[in-house]
Amino acid sequence: MDKNITKSEGNTAVADKPKIGEGLVIKNLHVGIEGREILKGVDLTVRQGEVHALMGPNGSGKSTLVNALMGNPTYEIVKGTATINGENLLSEPPDERAKLGLFLGFQYPASIPGVSVANFLRTALVSLTKPRARTEADLLTESGQVREDTAPQQNLGLAQANYVGRGGVARPTSPAVKEFRKNLREKLALLKMDETFATRYVNDGFSGGEKKRLEVLQMAMLTPKIAMLDEPDSGLDIDAVRVVSSGVNSLRGPEMGILLVTHYQRILNYIKPDFVHVMIDGQIVRSGGPELAHELEAQGYDWLRPEGAEEGVDDNV
């Protein structure tokens, strides 16, 4: 195997150059933590309808990338750009990035005792329908007072998200509630999840597999333009990996691009990526098709490690 590392143009691994404003476009992104640079110039394009796998050894910067893109304040953007369909992500807070169509499935989802899955999902949908406040002029009236949020869009009708109890879903009192319940049931059926899942508290007492399936359910309900999944196979046995992968595959389509972060090739046996990228020491050093994942499975990462590259030590980087 030739050890000379070659990169596809812009690390996009696509036959032609991406069009401006199409999908998630990252250019020369540098990100640091407490003064230490983690990402050292990342270029990547993920279009809607594509599945990209981002692989690499522990500590290479994979989780840093997706967390920085979602707006985690732990990570400092040093320089570079990131846009989604032409809209600047890096100037927006996390909730506004979600409204632009970006989603992050966490590697370690948090538990929220007392909040049912159904209420959690419906509240998230309500939040996504609120108008975006882009400038100070949008936030303040002429007299300097903070503007009141306008009501959610009428055609979505997602107000009053407090109808769900732990024992079940109350009888709907409006078309909006009926539509939400219908949508939720359809997505639960699509993901082969029991309807009682919606009445449980968010991740409270969930197994590792159930937590990851809830991340996929959120993705199904929120229908982002670009979904980033941070190690959805982490801590799962092979049966759980198969179930989670089946859920992700059921959501594949032309409207959603997926960036899947993983260490191992095994989940790619079930989720077939269109493109595979390898990140080492904060840079994408190789991009290719699905066959690249099989090369990594056979040979590991050392053959792609540039001279002088540091070995990662933190699983969460």
Short synopsis of the structure:
With 317 residues, the chain is of the alpha/beta class. 27% of the residues lie in helices and 24% in strands. Strand 13 (275-280) and strand 14 (283-288) form a beta hairpin.
Topology, please?
Blueprint: E1 24-33, E2 36-46, E3 51-55, H1 62-70, E4 76-84, E5 87-88, H2 94-99, E6 102-105, E7 112-116, H3 117-129, H4 136-139, E8 164-165, E9 168-169, H5 175-190, E10 201-202, H6 208-222, E11 226-230, H7 238-250, E12 257-262, E13 275-280, E14 283-288, H8 291-299
Helix pairs in contact: 3-6, 6-7
Question: What do these coordinates show?
Answer:
This protein has 2 domains: 204 residues, Rossmann fold, CATH 3.40.50; 72 residues, no CATH class. The chain is an alpha/beta fold and 317 residues long. The chain is built from 8 helices and 14 strands. Helices cover 27% and strands 24% of the residues. Strand 4 and strand 5 form a beta hairpin. The N terminus is likely disordered. The strands form 4 sheets. It has a 6-stranded mixed beta sheet, with helices on both faces. A 4-stranded antiparallel beta sheet has the order 2-1-4-5, with helices on one face. The protein is globular and about 55 Å long.
